[in-house]
Task: inverse folding
């Protein structure tokens, strides 16, 4: 595995030489600093801990400051471990977007936008109870019957009802790397990526 931490910038579109338009997501990927190297002998598994995003020392406690000082970097906001990293790296080294190549397929992990408390029409795609004739009043977005009576006397688990929507961890697989801008640490990935602009995403292969 190889991966990097990034920040979603927004969306754009790009044209290939044949004139075909492709919608892309712009991600600022890295640079990430290796802050810890885990090995099978000492930790039971092999992994690299990467750090991304600057953080002021005023907002960092002593343990965080000492941890980042061992890798020779300033405090960072986000830490993530990538198991069985395919590249050999030491503490203090930097990982940039160059580890990926144009045309490569990657997986992107992000947190979807939070929608708050939503009804069944928006959350599950219900069609409502139909028209408002025969005494139906303000029922066009109601869930309808829950299919239980005095026998169960409760709502069964898994029934699609209103509730909190969004803020789910989602992994999109086999997205194509369309273009890379190493000077700006930008990577363009085909299609949409979960999360709002400015959210943290993980790119891995």
Result:
């Amino acid at each position: 595995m190889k991966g990097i931490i990034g920040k979603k910038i927004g969306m754009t579109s790009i044209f290939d030489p044949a004139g075909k338009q492709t919608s892309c997501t712009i991600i600022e990927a890295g640079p990430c600093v290796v802050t810890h190297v885990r090995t099978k002998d000492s930790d039971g598994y092999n992994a690299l801990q990467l750090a991304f995003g600057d953080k002021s020392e005023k907002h960092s406690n002593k343990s965080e400051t000492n941890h980042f000082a061992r890798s020779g970097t300033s405090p960072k906001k986000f830490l993530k471990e990538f198991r069985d990293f395919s590249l050999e790296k030491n503490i203090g080294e930097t990982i940039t977007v160059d580890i990926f190549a144009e045309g490569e397929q990657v997986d992107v992990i992000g947190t979807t936008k939070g929608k708050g408390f939503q009804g069944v029409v928006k959350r599950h795609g219900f069609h409502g109870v139909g028209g408002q004739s025969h005494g139906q009043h303000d029922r066009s977005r109601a869930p309808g019957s829950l299919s239980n009576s005095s026998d169960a006397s409760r709502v069964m688990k898994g029934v699609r009802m209103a509730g909190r929507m969004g803020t789910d961890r989602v992994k999109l697989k086999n997205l194509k790397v369309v273009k890379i801008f190493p000077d700006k640490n930008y990577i363009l990935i085909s299609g949409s990526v979960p999360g709002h602009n400015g959210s943290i995403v993980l790119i891995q292969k």
Observations:
- The longest helix spans residues 62-70.
- The first strand starts at residue 3 and ends at 15.
- The CA atoms of residues 108 and 203 lie 5 Å apart.
- The mean pLDDT is 90.
